[in-house]
Every structure is written in structure tokens, then in C-alpha cells.
Amino acid sequence: xxxxxxxxxxxxxxxxxxxxxxxxxxxxxxxxxxxxxxxxxxxxxxxxxxxxxxxxxxxxxxxxxxxxxxxxxxxxxxxxxxxxxxxxxxxxxxxxxxxxxxxxxxxxxxxxxxxxxxxxxxxxxxxxxxxxxxxxxxxxxxxxxxxxxxxxxxxxxxxxxxxxxxxxxxxxxxxxxxxxxxxxxxxxxxxxxxxxxxxxxxxxxxxxxxxxxxxxxxxxxxxxxxxxxxxxxxxxxxxxxxxxxxxxxxxxxxxxxxxxxxxxxxxxxxxxxxxxxxxxxxxxxxxxxxxxxxxxxxxxxxxxxxxxxxxxxxxxxxxxxxxxxxxxxxxxxxxxxxxxxxxxxxxxxxxxxxxxxxxxxxxxxxxxxxxxxxxxxxxxxxxxxxxxxxxxxxxxxxxxxxxxxxxxxxxxxxxxxxxxxxxxxxxxxxxxxx
Length: 434
Fold this sequence. Notes:
Largest sheet: none
Shape: globular
CATH architecture: Orthogonal Bundle
Low-confidence stretches: 1-14
Mean pLDDT: 92
């Protein structure tokens, strides 16, 4: 079995480009496209869960990230995450993609440096878009765009550098680093904590707790979950950075873990409500995908099944608990991504096995791996929470973060975009966009 670092880490210390592999390049081209598809898929997953008057705005919160975060990543974010720098932030060597070309660029990879940049950019795009699920149906679009753009540079890029670059998390455990194969900490815990903070700062929807906020189209939710699962094979499988045996392992684990989560979730639904809901099934798939993300290339298939099954329990009960509180994390980003990501990140410290080409976890006698994982989680969560709070508060000094309650009642599709997701005929009201 190929003994790789098994993490999307730019080995900037290597100065001599290596020969490119056509097979690895082809796999990474496909994986980049798969991960990019996940952001529109997220839009449909979220869009089906909101009321019909906000479907376009919810979709646009994901689609717009493809633009603003994608541009920010190419111009500055990639350099801050992966250029040689300090233990806290990358340098400016790759600003405006300077030195990022078609050879390996000294990255120690058999794919073009430019392709590595694009692949990592798809991660930044969807991580920022994930946060939107906590503030749908009330946040103004302009401040939202400003927030996710700044957040991708100020919060996401440094945490990516800590874990996948030459950062302090990569230096834990005597330089072996915490285990995060494809983003349990960098993507999901990061976005989950940011979502909670955003929900608190922006505030609850005007009628939250007074009336039920029912999904307007559960078929969209299922479609989004299916497309997310499809794209996730590139998310996890591509994180091997080549057409390797580790990519095959990550691919299979990405199939198995959500299957186990789905089975346990349906059992929990049956025990607690007597009904197996479609929204619950779609949520279970996402939770399973999130949980296996940090572990996909480090654990065996049976461990992936166990990890997926265990991860269902804390996320299921967190959703149940959150619905009884005043926290309007509208689409349960924290429960699915924050809790699911944390579960997977800790469980990889349990199930990681050297026999599968990774490092030893607790089942192999290395109990200290769990502590290393916990330190990485806490560090990333603390920084994400503080950074998100400061950014939103700073933006609120210049512009309101949300629309007035009256316009919120009309629906953000018409108020913010001048369009309706479901036209009501000639009587549709058009309002100039914000």
C-alpha cells in the first residue's frame, strides 16, 4: 500500500518539481468537478428546507459563493492557506497565483500546481456556503456576500494552513499532526461553529417559535442529499491527490459510512416518533458523509461502518435538542456539520489503523491520538467562533445584517432579488434588487 501523507498538504519545502502523472491528473480533474458540484447541491438541500418565498435567496446563497469565494481564493486565499509562512498563516508567495503553474511547482505532487489550487478552492467555496443554512430567510444578501468573502480569507484560510499547510496543528504529536483526511476540522467543525455564532449575531427569524417553519419541497432536500453524496466521492477520494489505493479506500468508506448512519438514523426515528421521515433520511446521509470525511483514508471499511453508525447518535439528539431552544440555527448546520465533524474527528483517533496505510489510533494502542484530535478541534473551533463574531459585528457597524420584519414576511426572493421561485402569474410583484 502506498505510504502517502494522505492529506491535501502542500509540501512547500520541496524545491524540485516531479514528473506529472496523467492518471493522477485525470482523477484530480474529475474530483475537482465533483466537489464543485457539491455547492449547487447544497443549495438544493437547503432550498427544499425553507419556505417557498425564500427558495431563490437560499439557492443564491450557495451559488454566489462559487463567485465571490472562488475569486477571493484565487487572488489571496490560496496563498494564505498554502504558501510557505509561519505556524499561523501562509505567506504571500502565491498572491494573484504568482508561481502557480502547470508543473508540480515543487509541491511534491504528481499533478499540476494549478490543479491543486483549484481543487482546494472548491473546499473553500462550499465551507463558506455551509454557514448560510444558519441565517436563511432573514439575512441581507449584500452583507452576506461581504461576510463569506472575508470569512474565507480571515477564518478558513488560516485554519486550512494550520491543518494542511505547515501550521501548528500539523506540528502536533511530534510533527505527525492531527488527522484530517478531507476536512472534518477544516471544513465541517469550522463551518458548524461559524453557523452557531452567525445565528446568534444575526438573530432569529421574526416568527421563530411562533409558527412551524416547514420544508416547502422535500424532494429538493432528497435531490440535494443525493448530489452531495455523489460529489463527496471527489471530496474524500480526491483528497488522496491521485489515482491511488488510498483514493480507493476513501471512495469505499464514503459509500459505507453514510449507509450505516442512515440505518441507525431510521432506527432512532422509529423508536422516537414511530415514523421514518425523508428529511431525516437526507440529514442522516449528510451526517454520515461529514463524519467519515476526516477519517476516509485512515480507517478500514468495517471501521467506517462503525464510525458512521456511532456518529448518527449525537447529531440526531442535537437536532432534537436544538429545536426546543431559542437558537435559530435554521437548517441545523451545527448539529449536522459541527457535531458530525467533531464526532468523525474524534473517532478517527479511535479507529485509525496502520494496516490501512495510516497512523495508529486508540484501537491499535495509541490512545494519545484522541487527545491530539481534541486539541485540533478546540483550537479550530475557538478561532472560528471568535473570527466569525468579530467579522459580523464589524460589518454591522456599516450596514444592517438583516431585512426589516415586514420585508422578511414578504419573502426574500422578491425583496432582495426581484424574482419569485414559483411565479404566481401576471400579478407577481417585482421589487428592485438590493
